[in-house]
Amino acid sequence: MRVATAEQMRQLDNAAIHDSGIPSLLLMERAAQGIAAEALKLLGDKRPAYAVVFAGPGNNGGDGVATARLLLEAGVSVSAFLVGKREKMSPDTRAMEKLLEQAGGELQDLHMDFVGHNARINRADVFIDALFGIGLNSDIRGLASEAIQRMNDHPAPVVAADIASGIEADTGRVLGTATKAAVTVTFTLPKAGHYVGQGGLCTGRLVVHDIGIPRTLVDGLETNVTVIDAELVRSFLPRRPADGHKGDFGRDYILAGSVGYTGAPILASKAAVRSGAGLVFLGVPQKIYQIAAIKSDEAMPSPLPDDEAGRLTESALMPVLQKLAECDVALLGPGLGRSEGVNALVRNILQTVQYPIILDADGLNAIASHIGLLDARRECPTILTPHDGEFARLGGDLSNGDRLGAARAFAKQHGCLLVLKGHCTLIVLPNGEAFLNTTGNNGMAKGGSGDVLSGILLGLMGQDIHPVKATVAGVWLHGRAGDLAAQAKGTYAMTPSDLIDYLPAAFREVTEDSI
Fold first, then answer.
1. DSSP code, position 306
2. pLDDT (mean) for 116-128
3. pTM to 2 decimals?
């Protein structure tokens, strides 16, 4: 699904109104129909039911006022409050106020010190948050902030109109304070703020409601942000040839592990095999080779020179390069540990190997002080998979809360394919194109989950799937396997190994290989 910016949505609305001749009040009415429908779903059969609408003076508030009327007509008691100055009300919001009055309702100026207003707010079975829309660009203060706090403190669910008030539409940042919605009804196309940053935590269930903007206008919109879904992943995964053999599905190399971190190379290699890799070679320190050999049924481990602490040394470079010369793609980093020997080894490989390399965990740490190595590999796909802490060590700046902007700046500066892990993992290309992932859950927040992800990416990339397509599909599949594991075992009890076990089911959902 494509994602629009706030400015693009303004352009679409204007084109629909001025070029296509659709009355703005009709668009507002259709928006309110979507909001009211979700509020009624939350109320279910509860009658009598009581709804409280907080409306700002702008057109987002007009959506709320129209919703109040629709709920009233559906038999729900409604209190609609204007949060803002009447002289700032938009013409459409004034028109909707008149229609509300004709239906027997009233838009009252909110006064938190009025006992009657507080009593009505306390009665709410559902709230409609129509304070601010996607145009918000400054911190919320005063009465609007108080209204948001009352909704957040109340047990009744909140339906947000277009976006949870206080969330910046293009970044997901919280501007002062923000509503925590149970459902957000947005219009025509979603916005990045529904998914990324704190916005993703305030949106609740997202409903994309069609308000009748002509399809030709929507389809003609050029966007560079996409929400990953099963249909997209399905289109990225090729059919495996019926006469294929193991050599057709990639020769993958993993450099991983150290004493104390023996699980990382095993998780990564098993995930690569589960993702369809033909041959998986595993290079590990000599001191953990026997452990890796015992745990490896499909991957082929080899021992490499290490130091007294069981970490690889720079003297492992030549045997590693010899094996890499036989391979198609490499993964460097899971469980390598930190040492000058490890750092030098990873850097030398990056400077020598001219095919796709995935850097994870300590592979990322190895280049943190030599980030220029990425710049020199602009013509060779380099895939980085940091979490926030690793991203900061690489020089990424998340201080202003704009994860998407920070990821874009980094990918452009260093010419890499960046996978910024976390709630709504981001995949960003050097040209600024971005993909947002919505699969996954907090049961995956355990050591080893990242090793599984890097193994999946490796396994897909080795099958000659374009690095971008392999990364997008791999991130979605990783999260989907996590969701399936959570359904079966719960988020507390699931493990990274469960992700590997549920990968077949995740793959079956998006491939024709279900025999």
1. B
2. 95
3. 0.95
- 153 Cα distance to chain centroid: 27
Going by their DSSP bridges, the two strands 2-3 and 225-227 should be labelled as antiparallel
Calculate the average pLDDT of the chain.
97
496-510 and 263-274 are packed helices; what angle lies between their axes, rounded to 10 degrees?
10
Cβ 165 vs Cβ 134: under 8 Å: no
Q: CA 79: distance to chain centroid? A: 36
Q: What is the mean pLDDT of residues 387-394?
A: 97
- CB burial readout 417-452, b (16+ within 10 A) else e: bbbbbbbbbbbbbbeeebbbbbbbeebbeeebbbbb
Give the DSSP letter of residue 239.
P
What is the arrangement of strands in the sheet containing 329-332, beginning at the earlier edge strand?
Answer: 2-3, 225-227, 434-436, 426-428, 417-420, 382-384, 357-359, 329-332, 251-255, 279-285, 300-304
- CB distance 325 to 251 below 8 Å: no
Judge contact between 483 and 477, C-beta under 8 A. Answer: no
3-state secondary structure of 385: coil
Whole-angstrom CA distances from 176 to 60, 245, 332 are 19, 58, 41
Tokens linked to 105: 């309702």
Residues in CB range of 352: below 8 A, 6 or more apart: 321
The Cα 272–Cα 258 span in angstroms is: 19
Q: Is the Cα dihedral 79, 82, 87, 93 positive or negative? A: negative
